[in-house]
Specification:
single chain, about 140 residues, alpha/beta, Nucleotidyltransferase, domain 5, 5-stranded mixed beta sheet, two-stranded parallel ribbon, 3 helices, elongated
């Protein structure tokens, strides 16, 4: 006995249009997205065996090796530092400040920045340092 086998036509789905759409969407998002170049601030922190742990929501003031000032990666100068810090306090909701000073800076620059931070009305001030055991310090 011979059965009549009907030939079933399975609907083949072509993946070519799907791949084309994926590539078009990829190109669209690559062309419409904006790329920002984030410039890092290079600061060589001094070493300390017991640095303080600052609060995570603190405002960071960086003093680079060439004595340029930055508040949370935004460029500022010494004259505008108290006003810019007061504006940063409103945005951050905190008045805790961390100073990251390059170890090649003079004490005079650090004192001027600390005075400006105090004039801005900061609640607390912390100096950042790299953790390094006492035996391996130079």
């Amino acid at each position: 006995m011979e059965f009549d086998r009907r030939h079933r036509d399975t609907g083949d789905i072509s993946l070519t249009p799907v791949i084309d759409m994926v590539f078009l969407l990829l190109i669209f998002f690559l062309l419409t997205s904006s790329f920002m170049k984030v410039q890092g601030i290079s600061v060589d922190l001094p070493a300390s065996a017991s640095p303080l742990q600052p609060k995570e929501e603190s405002i960071t003031v960086c003093i680079s090796a060439d004595a340029k000032l930055f508040i949370n990666s935004r460029r500022t100068d010494l004259k505008r530092l108290p006003e810019d810090l007061q504006a940063a306090y409103v945005g951050a909701g905190t008045k805790d400040v961390i100073i990251q000073a390059d170890k090649s800076n003079s004490v005079q620059v650090l004192m001027q920045v600390m005075d400006a931070v105090n004039l801005s009305g900061a609640d607390s001030l912390t100096l950042a340092a790299d953790v390094q055991p006492i035996s391996s310090r130079n």
